[in-house]
Amino acid sequence: MTSFLPALSVLFAVVATAVPWGLPADATFILPLIVVMMVFCWRAIPGAALHPAAAMGLGLLADLMSGGPLGYWALMCLVAATVGPRAGSLKESREVGIHWLIWTLMVSLLGVFGWLLASLYYFRWIDWWPIALGAAASVVLFPIVLYGLLWVRHGRIGHARATIFRGAS
Amino acid sequence: MRERGSPLFRRHRPSWSAPVELLSFGLYFLCAVLLVLSRIGHGAINEARNGLVDLSAPMLELASVPAIEARRAMDRVKLYMAAFDEVDRLKKENEELKQWEWRTKLLERKVVQLRALLNAVEEPALAYATGRVIADARGPFVRSALINIGRRDGLRVGYAVINGDGLVGRTVDAGGSVARVLLLNDLNSHIPVLVGPAGVRGLASGDNSAELQLGFLPEGVTLYPGDEVYTSGSDGVLPRGLRVGVVTGSQGAYKVRPYAELNSLDAVSVLFFDAPALTRTDPPAAADGLGALSAAPAETPKTATASATLPVAAVAPPTGEQAQAER
Predict the structure, then answer these.
(1) pTM of the entire structure?
(2) Which of A32, A143, A164, B320 could cysteine-pair with B197, CB 3.0–4.6 Å?
């Protein structure tokens, strides 16, 4: 069951993206980017098994539910699944701050790439503001999501918190 | 030296490291292929999408319940907090509506007399079915919603979807029990409209923001903020006279603020309006795959309002004089 936890938690988040929360039009990027962030975090946490194909499949499900370009969020999740383990394998990235920084850089690049890709898909310049807002929100929410996933994995975050923040104190 | 061998941060060594590069390349390629197929609108992709959405509908319906209830609870709290102001506002509105009711009755009588004089043909009433938004399928690039009315209820692609405030969008995909509604503010939404008391023709296009762009207006036309915008029906798909919104902005950059609150849709109605253009794009043969598909729903719709009087009748645009007087 533990090996299915990453995929299940991301699946839960994918379903949550489709729920009618009544978010304003500018905030539509936030929830899908949290899904991408969860893929990144699961892949960065050593020992957590989320296969790239599963990450892509979950992204594809988000595409299907949103009715948007098929393969768009699948691609984003795949990029996150590719970068995640590389971030997790860096010696310095044992601190949460480094992970946070890597995610900030990654989501910035991913936002620009996603904006260009969407503009190419629709043959017109897409409004960049919702993407920027979503990226900024994901950066702010990163520690919350990371701790949430650690809690899901271990059932507690006490020991993990001490370890993660060791470098920051 | 600090101990860094926590189980959380052990060096990550994926067990599938050998074939993973090749697999990743294949997956990236697959994503690119899917994007291309999705862009060209391949039939298989659309069918698969509809099938999967149909399958996931019960799960989405279940998952949306807490969110909808939470939203309602928040609305109630807001309402309680502003209860006294709201009562005052409603009282004032009620007085105004009473006057409007009186005027409407007069006008109705006049219309009946004129119709009798002209021997005008009676307009057929439109059937409609009311359902609920079960999923907010608003991706970053798409403004759509899934509703729990499908082909089994008589729905067809292209039908207009309204709520109590006005036009919400039109159906673009239909499964057996669910349908996807393209909202007015979607990038791909273009609605031919009439604006103001003069009925100036234009095109209200979505751009994924809260307001719609108003384009293709006649040269040099002047509109005023607050002018009513309603469907012209010239696309041969939507019925004429559905309330869309009001004009905002200024000369050269007119916009339309939709009446319907598109971010928090709950109950919506689908109008069973079979225009010729619609019958061509979604012929009965294709639609009948999952049940009867005539203009009127074969089964009893989700509410007891089927075959009731067209709700549009209540949202007819104001006459020139009224609009001028309001201005």
Answers:
(1) 0.70
(2) B320
